[in-house]
Amino acid sequence: MRGTRTAAVGIASAAIVFLATGCGVSTASPGAGQPTASPSATQVPTQVPTRTQTTPTPTADAAEKSPALSGVIATGTLASPDGSTSGTIVLTAADGVVTATIDDFRSTATGQLDLDLTPYATTATCPSDSWRFVMNGVDAEPHTWSLPISIEGGPFEVDPSYLRSAVVHVDAATGTAGPDGCVTPVLAAAPLTWDVPDTRADLVVVDHGTRAGATGTTTSTNGALSTYTVTPGDTFPAIRQRFALTVDDVEYLNPFRADASDAALRSGTVYNLSAANRGVPPA
After folding, report:
1. What are the Cα distances from residue 143, in Å, to 91, 102, 175, 189, 254?
2. Is the pTM of this model over 0.70?
3. For the chain, N or C: smaller number of CB within 10 Å?
């Protein structure tokens, strides 16, 4: 069968949402089927100056909340191991929504197909078994339909280039391990090439020292801050002051932990501080 397929999903809450397995929209942590290949950064800065900011705003700055998304923002070529499925993934932004389309779609599969956006590379084992954003309802009949996604509150609220791949799978097959052992057997996958503005090209996090409400420990890689581990008594305002970060900075660096509020703080939780590692799901 051949044609153009379009799919989208509505956002149920103001936080970024992912699935571990199954259908629908919910928040989940990676399970036992987590891909064995960890993603690296989609965009790795080479040498950039440290941004001058010592007293971050305690609330999100709407002007810098997300990049200005317009037109075609990502593309990718679908490929399947057996050659049964092919097409071109196109993500387009317009009027506050993002629409995913599969152009020139060919497949021997029948029934409803789902399209996942995942931070894992297409070479990862079972890339849709763990962290993924599900776009339900791609009908396998030869016609085109468009159900746009609201940008607000979803994966496109922050720079979405951490989502490295698009994966197509048969909805009915989800939950039943296939020959490859994946709970969500992959029909076809495409590495995504993003074309979105880099709104934080100068973001290099600096530790300005422990203080009341921000006494947790950090890790570094090659002299650059990598992570911060929450300790009892921490608060987000104090943590943001310690590292000179706004709420939006925290959400940009941690798209899998988008709730930058005290209610979300848990002792032992690890937050990413490296722009190069924002696409690596938490363990």
Report:
1. 18, 11, 27, 21, 37
2. yes
3. C
DSSP 247: H
Helices (H), the chain: 236-243, 247-253
Tokens of 266: 């848990």
Give the pLDDT of the chain (283 residues) as one tens digit per residue.
Answer: 444 444 444 332 222 334 444 333 323 334 434 454 433 333 333 233 334 444 444 444 444 555 678 899 999 999 998 898 899 999 988 887 788 888 888 888 877 788 888 999 999 988 888 888 877 665 544 334 454 555 555 677 788 999 999 998 877 666 666 666 788 888 899 999 999 988 888 899 999 999 999 999 999 999 999 999 999 999 999 999 999 999 989 989 998 886 777 777 899 999 999 999 998 887 7
DSSP labels, 140-165: -SS-----PEESTTSTTSS-GGG--E
Q: How many CB atoms lie within 10 A of CB 126?
A: 22
Neighbours of 77 (CB within 10 A): 15
**Which tokens in the block code for residue 83?**
């050659």
Q: In what order do the strands lie in the sheet with 217-221?
A: 217-221, 224-229, 270-272
How many other CB atoms are found less than 10 A from the CB of residue 39? 21
Listed residue (115, 122, 118, 117) closest to 171, CA to CA: 115
Rounded to 10 degrees, the C-alpha dihedral 239/245/246/249 comes to -110
Q: Is residue 194 helix, strand or coil?
A: strand
**Burial tier of 215 (Cβ tally within 10 Å: 0-12, 13-18, 19+):** middle
Q: Residue type at 238?
A: A
CA dist., res. 116 & res. 214, Å (int)? 36
Q: Where are the beta strands (DSSP E) in 188-246?
A: 188-191, 193-194, 217-221, 224-229
